[in-house]
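Continuing the batch. This is chain 6 of the set; chains 1 through 5 are on the previous pages. Same settings as before, nothing changed between runs. Recording input and output for traceability.
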Amino acid sequence: MTNSAGFLRKHWKGYAFLIPIFLVLGTFKYIPFFNAVKMSFYDWNGANVKEFIGFDNFARLFRDETFYASLKNIGIFTASGIIIQLTVPLIAAVLVFHVKNMKLQNLLKVWFVIPLVIPSIVIYLTWQWIFAGEYGVLNQLLEAIGLESWTHAWLGESKTAIWSIIFVNFPWIGGITFLLYLAGLMSISSELFEVARLDGMNAWQRFIRLELPLVRSQIKLVMVLTIIQQIQSFENILVLTNGGPGDKTISPALYLYTKGFSYSEMGYASAIGLVLFILLLLLTLINNKFVKNTDKID
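Output for chain 6:
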């Protein structure tokens, strides 16, 4: 304890720079969070109506068919998101990593990072234009190649709406996930690749026996980030379908937003948010328990 106090006294100037960060986090993250936990026990419209009702919001929530529909949808979004993020960006990162021409490799890195600087709303509006009805790019393309029977109101039909949202951002490579995998591959010692070459490993054997085990920490992080992103995001669904048709694409986060800001049921929205927080916490703990880090390979 004495050593810790002495260390803090010695380096207090460095830790002082953290104070503004904690103030910002407290103001915009922690205080609103704890206030939302409190308000989940109230009938609150966000303004002048504020009545304590105990667990009534939660009792109503667990009888809410729309909420259960949103949980089913987010299960599909999350499962598909994990499958996508654990495959396509990883394969792309491996291929880019093994490009021998450094100029070409750097060009590919830049190409795949560019989507990070494009506002998400621009991407969603672009895909809305692609999936639009009769005059959408996708339907026009299908008609041009003689596949008129394949045309759909992609975002307006219950059978295609959720899969159309999942397809957004195809081929799903550009972004932080690609960089995480690439950073993991770059941290692998070149000596290990030399040993693999001397052992006569082909590309597939090298990937399975060397590269994949040594990027487990990145895989674990990607899984956590994907779960959090999928459960928290709603802006893509809001722009593309607004949860429709019916409740076929609604997510819990969009349902929370709608209840809070369209119907002024802030107390009920807070209850939804608290349940989502507990769900995210449980999924993160499960992921941390069952997915190994690189340094814990048996």
